[in-house]
TrEMBL record:
The lineage of its organism: Bacteria, Bacillati, Actinomycetota, Actinomycetes, Mycobacteriales. Residues 2-241 form the ABC transporter domain. The keyword rRNA-binding does not apply. It comes from the Bacteria. The keyword Metal-binding does not apply. GO terms for molecular function: ATP binding. It holds the Pfam family ABC_tran. It comes from Nocardia xishanensis. Gene3D superfamilies: P-loop containing nucleotide triphosphate hydrolases. Keywords: ATP-binding, Nucleotide-binding, Transport. SUPFAM superfamilies: P-loop containing nucleoside triphosphate hydrolases. This is ABC transporter ATP-binding protein.
Length: 241
């Protein structure tokens, strides 16, 4: 699904050049739940931004389903993100004045889909993530775990093949975090859809439940442990569509 070849990304900070990524080669296939770990400054967020077409490499190739996405212009980057990537953030990024279903619906409404069809899809996804009884609640009326489930439903509303999660359990207690990890695993492993999930995390316990753990240091992949199988830590839904 994704192939990165000789990726280099350098930033100018305080008049100095800092190489955030230094020759990354990586392949991620559909059906994989991949975690990215490493110390602060290792290049984890930079890698996630490049995968989601939020940034461009200085050198190298990023191919998504045999299409080069590493050097798209701004408009084509935006189009790629809208239709191919679902983002999940540590701080949820929900709109406080909107209900749960309205937050889920926003990407599809902005893409021009009619309200009725969009609402039906939003309600379906909220049911699938276990929030069928909270569809009219605003973020202030939801727990942290419930808000993250809304964010996951929103990430799925455009049916993207790639889900990128940035510290998705960072603001959750251990039990709620485990439920979110189980849900992310089911998203990746759903046989009806060709999806991959890539997660940046500092949580070693969470990373160890994923199919594959990439360890970054100084902008390089220093370990790639793909000899594991994801462990379901809960059973919030039977299937994620």
């Amino acid at each position: 699904m994704l192939e990165l070849s000789e990726i280099v990304r350098t930033y100018r900070i305080g008049g100095q050049s800092v190489r955030a990524l230094d020759g990354i080669d990586l392949r991620i296939d559909a059906g994989q739940f991949v975690s990215v770990v490493g110390p602060s400054g290792a290049g984890k967020s930079t890698l996630l931004h490049l995968l989601g077409a939020l940034d461009r490499p200085d050198r190298g190739s990023i191919r998504f389903r045999d299409r080069e996405i590493g050097h798209l212009d701004d408009d084509r980057q935006s189009e790629f993100r809208r239709h191919h990537v679902g983002f999940v953030f540590q701080f949820f990024n929900l709109l406080p004045t909107l209900s749960a279903w309205e937050n889920v619906a926003v990407p599809k409404l902005l893409d021009g889909t009619g309200l009725r069809a969009t609402k039906d899809r939003a309600l379906e996804l909220l049911e699938l993530v276990g929030l069928g009884d909270r569809v009219e609640h605003r973020p202030s009326e939801l727990s942290g775990g419930q808000m993250q489930r809304v964010a996951l439903a929103r990430a799925l509303v455009m049916d993207p093949p790639l889900i990128l999660a940035d510290e998705p359990t960072g603001n959750l207690d251990s039990k709620t975090g485990a439920d979110i990890m189980a849900l992310l695993a089911r998203i990746a492993h759903d046989d009806q859809h060709e999806r991959a999930v890539v997660m940046v995390t500092h949580n070693t316990e969470a990373a160890n439940t994923t199919d594959r753990v990439l360890t970054l240091a100084d902008g390089r992949i220093i370990a790639d442990d793909s000899s594991r199988a994801a462990v379901a830590l809960g059973d919030p839904v039977a299937e994620v569509r």
